[in-house]
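Repro:
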Amino acid sequence: MPKVSGLEVLRALKADERTASIPVVIMTSSKEDKDLDESYKLGVNAYVVKPVVFENFAKVVTELGIFWLLVNQAPK
């Protein structure tokens, strides 16, 4: 994202009571432990490193969608 990092967006979302409870999945190319740790400290719900190969990326996105729509139990 130009000019704003994903962690900055996450920080802003979790700091605002109107958006703090929205589940957030980070899809990133970063495998850095510091990014992973900071994301979870800020309240991310899942951290996914994007596969480079498009077919693998598409599969991961499909599986994430299935998880969040069918498997995950959200509050009512």
